Amino acid sequence: MNDDIEFLYVGTERGLESTIVPNYSIPFKALKVEGFKRKLNFEGIKYNLKTIGYFIQSIRKSKKIIDEFSPDAVIGTGGYVSAPVCYAAAKKGIPTVIHEQNSVAGITNKFLARYVSAIAICFKDAENQFKGQENKIVFTGNPRAQEVADIQANDSLKTFGLNPKQPTVLIFGGSRGAAAINKTVIDHCHAFVEADYQVLFVTGREHYEDLSEEWKSSCGLEDEQSKVSIVPYIEDLPSVFASVSLVVSRSGATTLAELTALGVPSVLIPSPNVTEDHQTKNARSLSEAGAAELILEDELNSSKFIETVNRLMSDEGMRNDMAAKAKQLGVPDASDKIIHLLMTLMNG
Q1: For a Cys staple, 181 with which of 145, 173, 190, 218, CB 3.0–4.6 Å?
Q2: pLDDT digit string (tens) for 185-203?
Q3: N- to C-terminal Cα separation, the chain
């Protein structure tokens, strides 16, 4: 533990980081920077010209921030704000790392790859995303994995009126919920009520009231069916992940880092509304390894969803096999790997 290490977080005023980071007493500096529009009509070109102006200004400000803070190393996580900071740091000869969380590299990290000292990745599929820079690639995994890796099965299901000793499937579509997943669950509410396993259904806060009413009109009052619990949000998802038999979810990078670190079998339904369909590629890295089942969103209209959940919930051996394969994909020491990479670069 190095108590004398200092950190500075550079983000945007509009991002969540502008409130979250200072709450942890970490120094914070803000830059004004925007992403490029992919649609190149008149408005798109006009917007992109303005974005280039912001980028040039933010490089100047980044140089000033770096001169004042004098960092020994800089790490960027792929957001637009990483571009000017990492570019400025690399040009000053400061050891600089970019961390790519997804299987498809984002535009910022692709731009920075030629300038930085090292490229940390979380999915082997990302290796071919950095043409000509392969010698800089280091597989580290996602540091979120190390945060949750030691969580054991617990009684967290009691909080939701469920029995921790009973087989349970957790269904959620991310912090805001996912309309397509929510609709599918409601459509199959009778099957879940009649199932011999428990269901913990997380709707997302903004959908909770409407979906509770829909469930009530379709399948009766929720509290009459002790095997089903419907909640708007769960604060500590990893503790619940460690305590359920199966997770049905989207396939964002952080969720997959947690599921693999904990060794949890899953049914993954990638969001189609993400850049370059990276969630599908994330999900395939697990499904092809036998750690998850993949269902595309346009397949939710079929019976595939409920058949897949029922099949897995009725086969403990298959779930155990998927759990073991998920665990093999996990990187429970991801944070240590990133720290080791930074220390190597600083001491090199």
Answers
A1: 173
A2: 999 999 999 999 999 999 9
A3: 21
